[in-house]
Amino acid sequence: MASRSLLRKMSMSYIFSVFVRELPGYIIFAWIFMPVTLLLLLLIAYFRIKLLEGESGCGGNEGETPVCQTIQF
């Protein structure tokens, strides 16, 4: 019986639940939620800029060949 109690106390889920119970809410917000949110917003802004650059790069005057058709990969 004592070994079962010891195994329960040493299990990962028990340690994690004790850690989360003792962790203040502002730490969860400041250290986990905010960086993830800022990273996602940064990725959205980056890909929006890249998408706008791609759209403007393929357009051009009717007499000129668009830049996107002259680039060879």
From TrEMBL:
Transmembrane regions listed in the UniProt entry: 26-47
Keyword Transmembrane: yes
Keywords on record: Membrane, Transmembrane, Transmembrane helix
Protein name (record): Uncharacterized protein
Species for this entry: Falco tinnunculus (Common kestrel)
